[in-house]
Amino acid sequence: MSKKERNSGGGNNLKIIIFNIIIAALCIASIVTLYVGDFMKAEITLTVNKDTLVKMMPKQESAPQNGAIKAAGEEGGFNMGDITKYLDDDFELSFSASFALKGDSIAKSALGNADQEVKGLINDNIDKLIDNITATVDQVVEQSMKAVVRAAVDEIKATIKEAIKEGMEGSDVTEEEVWEMLNEKGIYETDIDRTIDEFAATIEKLLEGDRTETIAFLESTADTSVLYKMECIAAEEELKSSGNSYTQADIEAKASEYQKQIVAEFNKVIDELSVDGQFSTETLIVSLFNGFGFEDENATDEKDDKVEDIENGPANAAEEGAGGEGSSSDKKFNNMEDVKNYVIELILSKIGPDTIDMVGKVLSYVGYFLFFVMACWAYVLIKIIVKTIFCKNKTVGLFFPRMFGWMPHVFFVGLPMFLIKYLPLFAEKIVASQPEMQESMNSIMSILEMIKLSVSSLTWISALCTVILMVLLIFYWPMRRRAKKERKGK
């Protein structure tokens, strides 16, 4: 070989080594992200606005009054079924839940720990779900507290309206007449809005367990308190309608009664949502779970045993059994860990061992596929290291990663996103072929309109590296072919 050819070969080897370093970096990036990254992550975002709640909220009978002044002679009170009318017009609540499937979990499933990995996935994702719920509760509490104030304002207006009606001997009183009276007293709708915002500003400390600022707001008798002014107006109108003489002290005493009633109802609600006397975002969730009346399986088993004893025992056993019934079979939660553990146990019990076994097998099959794709990258990486150090022909074939490196992302992200995007179109075709499903499909689609589902994954790095390999191959393949010819020429 001539000196010119040797120099040319040396230059070619230098280019090959540079390309090999780049290819090795792509192999390492693909292997690492396939193993330690999110193999598949699905995120569901549920967005609920006021119009949606109006459609979803069940129609209920008027519940006992909570946190508002009951109008004189009025039946019912604050109706939770109509709570939507007290929400902000631009109210929107977004709740996100994500399910992440890690590459190492899939790999471990393929190595024989599938059942444990499935249970571990449930544990991890339930923890994230509960944390997301906790983060959303603040918004719910703020809107609920605003609704309570608006309800209280409406009840005060109803009291004023009733008092005016009695003074006018049964004549109907319009909303406009009530507002005319309030306007004459210097109270306008903008004042109400400002009052609600000021009340909402106290909620942050309330969720930290300090209710003093919120109660101080409700008990305020300052000239700047719009709520107290309305209570005084309601008190004066009620005293006026009685036909008896009254003084300013009587008005203030009556208004104080209204305040005490509001504060008492407020404290009652907070106490019911407290745990061991403490109120916070977490205790709110714990209390709500306690209020749902979930059954304790152990207590239920004991109850079944008692029922059996009653059926087979003496007559007085029935009386003992009746006295022991009640909330003893209800599951009691003390903290967020109890809530998380219960939800996990509930899901596992509903899924059952057979389903867990089936999901475990699916994970193990996906794990085999993952190992195969990682092996494709590892094979090229090992060949690059060996050939770069020990061989004169330092080029390597890139067939396996080019053929299989893109598959995880396309199969587990691309196809799901494609199906999600064209789901409405598929639904329309189903309805067109089966018109009797129109009503059910409309209900399903109305729910889907609130839901945004996205699928992501770090497998995109492996797919991107595959694309980069294809681009590099434009320059790398001529060098590989030349190196082969030079090797054969020797």
Structure report:
The protein has 490 residues and is mostly helical. It is built from 18 helices and 3 strands. It has a 3-stranded antiparallel β-sheet. Helix 3 (103-167) packs antiparallel against helix 13.
Kindly summarize this structure in a few lines.
Strands 2-1-3 form a 3-stranded antiparallel beta sheet. The chain contains 18 helices and 3 strands. It is mainly alpha-helical and 490 residues long.
Structural classification: mainly alpha
Inertia-based shape? elongated
Query: Helical stretch count?
Result: 18
Beta-strand percentage?
A: 5-15%
| Distance between the first and last residues' Cα | 9 Å
Low-confidence blocks of residues: 1-8, 58-81, 299-304, 306-311, 314-328
Report the mean per-residue pLDDT as an integer.
76
Strand order of the largest sheet: 2-1-3
Helical content class = over 70%
Number of strands: 3
- Element-level helix/strand string: HEHEHHHHHHHHHHHHHHHEH
The radius of gyration is 35 Å
Secondary-structure map:
Elements: H1 3-36, E1 38-49, H2 50-56, E2 92-102, H3 103-167, H4 175-184, H5 189-200, H6 203-207, H7 212-219, H8 226-241, H9 248-272, H10 281-291, H11 297-312, H12 316-324, H13 336-390, H14 399-404, H15 407-421, H16 423-433, H17 438-448, E3 451-456, H18 459-489
Antiparallel strand pairs: 1-2, 1-3
Helix pairs in contact: 1-13, 1-18, 3-5, 3-8, 3-10, 3-13, 8-9, 11-12, 15-18
Name the descriptors.
mainly alpha; 18 helices; three-stranded antiparallel β-sheet; single chain; 490 residues; elongated
